[in-house]
């Protein structure tokens, strides 16, 4: 049966495939609260085994990894599929139209926590493998699977797990379905991610909150103390003023610049989809800032009383949480040390606390394997995919490119407006089904590529 039949097979199994996804979605797996994690890992293992994948649950210093494999021949080309089974907390619950852990279909979309990030995309990969096996009865390559339970918590144990299991995880390519498709709706290939550094700044002055009249002009305010420091760290144009912050940034190659220039851009459409209709930016600036520049972002500020009405106090403490998205070749710990030095220079009384970090990563767009996967995606969608050198967000992509030292390609299967991490997270049914089809095409094209390589070796 030719690969062209894949669409028909998916259509015939649509309801069954949706129900298998719903089973996984109903199982809570909130990593930051350790709710349902072990149960979800067991459920995922059972599903994978039913699909013919040899599967085991492997422990880490945190939540477990679900590892599986279908090994045709140890010497064959090996694809490693990565994803995560953990999800974000559902709060605020009242903002959900339907219960966050009961998959509900409305207007062609599946609404549920994890629908887009990442259970829907993870299941599309697994069902793609299952569908391919149903068509051909065998795989043309080896496939390994690694699904972690801590991605939404910053993947704190993934790098050590990969280091300890490099031989087990040895592969020729890592393929991830995560993130959002391009806002234009075109298929999108991502060749890297920005890294991240999360930290907290805290100013503490008095031992308790004080009356703002009785101690006004006497007791300094920690909120102003933090604000004054923040103004030395970033100006009104968004330029970071911390010495050395922009050091070691790898400039985009000529090819990468060309790829960015081919990406569609509609400022009004993007603005409406992100809830900011005042977006005024040209294409070149937008994509350069999104992929090639680091950020210095305030997540939140907390100090004093912010409830209804007024409480006239001088707060005792003020706290700000910051995340910086970093680009190749910035080192998160180098940036953290520079921030600490900046604080020491401008206000040493303020306490700096490291929270988490993730290294940036990028795979060269010039590699032959990138062209192979691009061709597969083109066939799957009957549309030339867009290629973006880097994702604006962060994934633990560096564990593949820097620890396993193999190329890594990210192909988002979820719609741009999936509302991941927010109430009413969703995935369009067509995007989910297309992800299954795309996975089949990627496997098939990699099989042809592997056969070509083996023939070349034989001729030599």
Descriptive report:
The chain has helices spanning 6-12, 14-26, 37-50, 119-136, 158-164, 166-169, 222-233, 254-261, 267-273, 283-291, 332-346, 368-381, 398-404, 429-459, and strands at 54-58, 65-70, 78-84, 104-106, 109-111, 142-148, 173-176, 188-190, 192-193, 195-204, 210-211, 297-303, 313-314, 317-326, 351-358, 361-362, 386-388, 408-410, 426-428. The protein has 460 residues and is an alpha+beta fold. The protein has 2 domains: 3-193 and 360-459, Zn peptidases (Aminopeptidase, 3-Layer(aba) Sandwich), CATH 3.40.630.10; 195-251 and 292-358, Alpha-Beta Plaits (2-Layer Sandwich). Helix 1 (6-12) packs antiparallel against helix 14 (429-459), helix 4 packs across helix 14 (429-459) and helix 12 crosses helix 14 (429-459).
Characterize this entry briefly.
With 460 residues, this protein is α+β, with helices and mostly antiparallel strands.
């Amino acid at each position: 049966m030719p690969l062209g039949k894949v669409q028909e097979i998916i259509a015939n199994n649509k309801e069954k495939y949706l129900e298998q996804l719903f089973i996984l979605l109903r199982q809570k797996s909130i990593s930051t609260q350790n709710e349902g994690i072990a149960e979800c890992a067991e459920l995922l293992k059972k599903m994978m085994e039913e699909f013919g994948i040899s599967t085991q649950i492997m422990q880490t210093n945190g939540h477990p990894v679900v590892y599986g494999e279908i090994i045709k021949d140890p010497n064959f080309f090996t694809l490693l599929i990565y994803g995560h089974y953990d999800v974000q907390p559902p709060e605020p619950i009242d903002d959900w139209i339907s219960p966050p852990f009961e998959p509900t279909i409305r207007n062609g979309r599946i609404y549920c926590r994890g629908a887009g990030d990442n259970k829907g995309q993870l299941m599309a990969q697994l069902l793609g493998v299952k569908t391919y096996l149903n068509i051909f009865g065998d795989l043309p390559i080896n496939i390994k699977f690694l699904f972690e339970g801590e991605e939404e918590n910053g993947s704190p144990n993934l790098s050590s797990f990969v280091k300890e299991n490099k031989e087990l995880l040895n592969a020729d390519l890592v393929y991830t379905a995560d993130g959002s498709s391009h806002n234009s709706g075109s298929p999108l290939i991502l060749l890297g991610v920005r890294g991240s550094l999360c930290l907290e700044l805290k100013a503490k002055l008095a031992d308790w909150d004080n009356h703002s009249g009785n101690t006004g002009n006497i007791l300094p305010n920690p909120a102003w103390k933090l604000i004054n420091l923040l103004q030395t760290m970033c100006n009104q144009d968004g330029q970071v003023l911390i010495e050395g912050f922009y050091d070691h940034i790898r400039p985009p190659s000529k090819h990468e610049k060309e790829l960015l220039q081919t990406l569609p851009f509609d400022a009004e459409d993007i603005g409406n989809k992100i809830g900011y209709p005042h977006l005024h930016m040209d294409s070149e600036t937008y994509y350069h800032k999104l992929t090639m520049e680091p950020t210095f972002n305030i997540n939140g500020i907390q100090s004093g009383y912010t409830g209804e009405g007024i409480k006239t106090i001088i707060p005792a403490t003020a706290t700000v949480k910051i995340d910086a998205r970093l680009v190749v070749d910035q080192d998160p710990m180098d940036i953290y040390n520079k921030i600490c030095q900046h604080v020491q220079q401008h206000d040493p009384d303020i306490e700096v606390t490291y929270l988490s970090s993730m290294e940036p990563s990028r795979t060269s767009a010039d590699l032959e394997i990138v062209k192979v996967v691009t061709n597969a995606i083109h066939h799957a969608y009957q549309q030339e995919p867009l290629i973006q050198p880097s994702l604006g967000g962060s994934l633990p992509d560096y564990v593949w490119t820097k620890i396993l030292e193999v190329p890594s390609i990210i192909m988002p299967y979820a719609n741009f407006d999936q509302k991941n991490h927010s109430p009413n997270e969703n995935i369009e049914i067509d995007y989910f089904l297309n992800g299954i089809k795309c996975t089949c095409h990627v496997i098939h094209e990699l099989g042809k590529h592997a056969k070509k390589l083996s023939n070349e070796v034989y001729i030599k």
